[in-house]
Design goal:
Length: 244
């Protein structure tokens, strides 16, 4: 049964269009909801009714997609969103790796966070963070040499400039579960598209990644023909994330 305490704290969720999903109100039985409303004082009851009746302007973009997945979030993250210790933010989780073989793992368990190279460690999100992957960006560039300064200063460009890469495949897994199966890298050929960032692919089926699972995005090449030495791939997962 829905509790007074849970419904009463809806006022803390004014920023969420789909706050009901956090409280289990989606699909709740009418009698349980009415019983919880009767136990509230008049002010709590009115504020709750107003919130349920007028959720406010519709959320847009990856934020709206994240709100649809509220009921899939772990309990401790849902609780953080309820009590205001966690909120939603835009982000891009990125990593840069060299093209030194036909298989490039963009995130690995031995990776450390390094500004300019990657912004997470050990191929996992930080504690209390959950990311709704709304889109993926894939670019490539050739560094002057293999030193960190030169790699970080690389001008990453459209994959159209690297035929052997664009003709390869990629896949995305989380906790060994396939989120995106082997797919042609040609989907990142957006150089001639209007209103689409270079190398960006918008997912029609956004996927949720939480802080306790391993992120694995692998690029597979059929050939390294024509790829210059010191070529690197930049990969980013774009979407909405929970953050303090």
């Amino acid at each position: 049964m829905l509790g007074m305490e849970g419904l009463g704290s809806l006022a803390a969720l004014d920023e969420y269009n789909n706050a009901g999903a956090l409280f289990g109100l989606d699909g709740a039985e009418g009698e349980a909801l009415l019983g919880a409303l009767r136990r509230m004082n008049p002010i709590q009851r009115q504020r709750t009714v107003n919130k349920l009746a007028s959720p406010g302007p519709r959320s847009k973009g990856s934020r709206a997609e994240m709100e649809k997945h509220f009921n899939e979030l772990p309990d401790y993250i849902q609780n953080g969103l309820k009590d205001g210790t966690l909120r939603l933010a835009d982000t891009m989780i990125y990593s840069i790796k060299p093209v030194t073989s036909r298989t490039i793992k963009m995130w690995e368990t031995q990776d450390d966070r390094e500004v300019g190279l990657r912004n997470i460690s050990n191929a996992k999100l930080p504690k209390n963070q959950a990311l709704l992957v709304s889109g993926i960006m894939l670019l490539a560039g050739t560094a002057a040499d293999a030193t960190k300064d030169k790699v970080v200063a690389t001008d990453f460009k459209a994959l159209e400039n690297f035929p052997a890469i664009v003709n390869g495949e990629f896949n995305l897994k989380a906790n060994k579960k396939q989120l995106i199966p082997e797919t042609s890298i040609a989907i990142f050929k957006t150089q001639n598209f209007h209103y689409v960032p270079i190398g960006y692919y918008k997912l029609s089926n956004p996927r949720l990644v939480t802080d306790d699972i391993l992120i694995e995005l692998t690029v597979e090449l059929g050939s390294q023909e024509g790829i210059p030495a010191n070529t690197y791939i930049y990969c980013a997962l774009h979407g909405t994330i929970t953050t303090p």
